[in-house]
Amino acid sequence: MQKIISSEIVVAYSNCPRKAFLLMSGEQGVDVEYVKILKQKRFLQKSKYAKDIKPTGSDIQIDKSNNLKKYGDTLVNVNLKSEYFEASCDILKQACKVPSVKRADYEPTIFIGSHNVGKEHKLELAFVGYVLGKIEGQIPEKGTIVCADGKSHGLKIKPLLKSLQKIVSPLQDWLSFPTNQPPQVILNKHCSVCEYQMQCRKIAIEKDELTLLSNLTEKERKRQNNKGIFTVTQLSYTFRARRKPKRLASKPEKYSHALRALAIREHKIYITGKPKLNIKGKLVFLDVEGNPELDFYYLIGLRIKNEDSYVQHSFWANEKSDEKDIWDSFLDILAKIDNPQLIYYGHYEKVFLKKMKERYSKTADSSLLVDKLSAESVNLLSVIYSQIYFPTYSNGLKDIAQYLGFQWSDDAASGLNALTWRAQWESSKNPDLKQKLITYNAEDCEALEKGVNIVAQLCQEQTEECNSPDSNIIHTNSLKRENLYHLGRNKFSLPELEIINQSAYWDYQRDKIYIRSSQQLKLTSKRASRSRGKVLPVNKIIECEPPTCCPKCKSMDIHKHHRLSKTVYDLKFGRVSIKRWVVKFYFNQYKCFKCGAIFSHQNKTWTKSKYGSNLLAYMIYQNLELRLSQHNVIKSLNRLFGFNVNESMYNGQKTIATQIYKETYEGILNKILCGNLIHIDETSVSIQGKSAYVWVITSLEEVVYLYKETREGDFLHELLREFKGVLVSDFYTCL
After folding, report:
1. How far apart are alpha carbons 43 and 182 in whole angstroms?
2. 10 Å Cβ neighbour count for 333?
3. Which of 49, 460, 611, 682 gives a 20 to 30 Å CA spacing to 705?
4. pLDDT-flagged residues of the chain (< 70)
């Protein structure tokens, strides 16, 4: 992994942490044509701008050892480097100085290939200012972003630093604690322009990741993960058919991720609710291509059914000034049709009708026609969205049409590639590219028509006859409703589950039924529950000594702000005993009257946790050395010492222990590697249903264990590079 955090890596992390990790690791990806076009636009705009400003220096490497001022007041193509940070700045201009205010000497300017300033562009500018501040000792107040159309946008840098720090901190951790395991694959909107999209999607499909479901939010995915659901197949088993109450009959169906997963697992179409496709007039299938950045529509496609044949119309605009012409042609065609009804897919065409009416429909007849078309139009996606679930990962027209058997003539056809082809046509005027776009638009209309025909058929066939075992269409009303709380004996797929259920029933009898039937047991239970929440007595009180000066400006003019306390719960080990030990620390917060800083006692002898180091050591000893389960360790701590420890706290202490004992672990490993003899072996384990391997490395005096997801021994070559002794192993691939 490279030891540099660059602008590219910071921007990549804001879009996807995994992409940033792969860039830092030097992983090669496949360039996306649209990204190449954006880079080219950025380069052309920067070159044009540089000619106009007449720079005093160019292609300069700057770090703390160089003085920026010696290069002049306007610098081009500056590479800023400080420690392990490296940022590329397109333009550095000397800032306007105010004598009474201390400011940075230079302000950065960057260029972008798009027409709109996005979140990642602001972060890139903030990172450039951050690195420049490390060199100059003062972060610049503002910077400038120049778009592809030449418009400049001035931004204040300091408000952006908070968001930047959330990205820089984990990147610094990667440098401090190198790892070969990239972050989890999480597919998102950025994947379409990412060079690693094919690699990540392949991994996601192999692992059946939840992130394959396109409209599954990060919050929902984490919620499912917390319940132990990590794959699409697992999610599919959570779907339960519910009968909708009469009072909610008029309300639209809620989208179900579990039903989408079930459709994918069974490879069948599932219908819920009562979808309706209101077709009243003569169908006209509409698809529009445009450039969202420029708010420009350049191609309108219409497919009109004429008895047994179809007529395809394509209205093309070379420039934005031609937009009105193609809109007028579009309305002329529709005005000649008796009772036309527009059918489109998604929100884009709906917005198109609204915007074009505002721009060009100035006459009453034109406005009335557009209003009628908009009111009677049908968005096919709104019919499908939460009522018809095709076995596809998304509700996109491409996915559904391909499932229904439709194929585009160009395998690369997509909305993003349409933007690429349009940009290439604008620079070359190649007629083949224009024809490619027109063909793509016409095929979208044809795919839309196929989707409408299938959906209309599904809406008509909402009978229980279509729910036979051999049918490819299932209505959720016919599915068996499972009641988890029915009376009678449960039937288990595995006999072991029945034993577990019986044990749980015995616990219920002991803790609930027996206690309820006995007055003495009831009193004992109440005393136990009251004792769990009582305040433990303090064994020792420590008053912390006040600081002598302000840690920020070293001023002696400090005053008490308010009093604080910290209680640490711990164990005290005697020669033949262990006892609970509670220590309470009292200290004050102070305020410096000179610089206004608020601070507390600096030499703290406690950690952020409310539990002490002896208690941590005792828990680890019980769990690892004595092989007691986590549940039993928690129970013994609460019963013997009166602590109120739960599983969440215990897991947090284990995380702290890994950080404390990491140095010890590395010391043991180094001692083994410096020896003359090493034995190595591996054994398989199962974690959350996934197979993994634990490698054992020992010198017969010390031993370490390494967890790996595969049995491959390639990591041993790097680990044993400096080892000069004898290696004993029966695993031939590691040699």
Report:
1. 32
2. 17
3. 611
4. 1-2, 97-103, 461-470, 480-489, 504-534, 601-607, 731-735
Pairing mode of beta strands 473-475, 269-271: parallel
654's enclosing H/E stretch is helix 647-660
- Cα–Cα dist 118/167, whole Å: 16
* Number of domains making up the chain: 4
Q: Do residue 9 and residue 95 come from a single domain?
A: yes
**501, part of any domain:** no
Structural domain of residue 402, as residue ranges?
Answer: 282-461
**Domain termination site, one of 453, 478, 503:** 478
Q: Which alpha helices (H) appear in 471-623, and where do they start and end?
A: 495-508, 514-517, 519-532, 613-620
Using DSSP, state whether 347 is helix, strand or coil.
coil
- Tens digit of each residue's pLDDT (9 = 90 or more) over 82-128: 888 999 999 998 887 655 455 678 899 999 999 999 999 999 999 99
Is residue 114 a part of any domain in this protein?
yes
Task: Say how far apart CA 223 and CA 228 lie, in whole Å.
Answer: 9
Q: Note whether 437 and 289 are within 8 A (CB).
A: yes
CA torsion angle for 340, 341, 347, 353 (degrees, to 10)?
A: 30
**Model-wide pTM > 0.85:** no
Confidence at residue 733, expressed as pLDDT on a 0 to 100 scale = 47
Q: 457 and 352 in one domain?
A: yes
CA 615 to chain centre: 36
What tokens does 111 get?
Answer: 């260029």
Order across the sheet with 340-344: list the strands: 309-316, 296-306, 282-291, 340-344, 378-379
Contacts of 356 (CB under 8 A, 6+ apart): 297, 323, 327, 370
Q: Give the angle 391-419-209 at the CA atoms, nearest 5°.
A: 30
The structure tokens listed for 493 are: 């797929």
Q: Which helix (H) or strand (E) segment is 668 a member of?
A: helix 662-673
Q: Domain containing 41 — which CATH number?
A: 3.90.320.10
Q: What is the pLDDT of residue 97?
A: 62
The per-residue pLDDT for 402 is: 94
So what's the pLDDT on residue 63?
A: 86
Which residue bears the tokens 């051999």? 470
Instruction: At 164, list the tokens.
Output: 């930047």
438 and 305 share one domain: yes
Give the number of C-alpha atoms closer than 13 A to the C-alpha of residue 182, restricted to the C-beta side.
21
Q: CA-to-CA distance for 462 and 264, rounded, in angstroms?
A: 20
Distance CA 678, CA 671 (A): 11
Indicate whether 664 belongs to any domain: no
Please check whether residues 40 and 127 belong to one and the same domain: yes
Looking at residue 557, what is its pLDDT? 75
CA atoms of 8 and 24, how far apart (whole Å) = 10
State in Å, rounded, how far the first CA of the chain is from the last one.
25
Same domain? 252 vs 301: no
Residues 295 and 387 in one domain: yes
Alpha-carbon gap, residue 636 to 645, rounded angstroms? 10
- SS3 letters across 586-606: EEEEEEECCCCCEECCCCCCC
Residue 357 and residue 323: Cα distance in Å, rounded?
Answer: 12
291 alpha-carbon distance from chain centroid: 27
Q: What's the pLDDT at 514?
A: 56
Q: What is the spatial distance between Cα 386 and Cα 252, in angstroms, rounded to a whole number?
A: 8
Same-domain status, 68 and 94: yes
Please state, as a whole number, how many other Cβ atoms lie within 10 Å of the Cβ of residue 546: 11
CA angle 392, 394, 398 (to 5 degrees): 80
DSSP type of residue 577: -
Domain identity same for 355 and 295:
yes
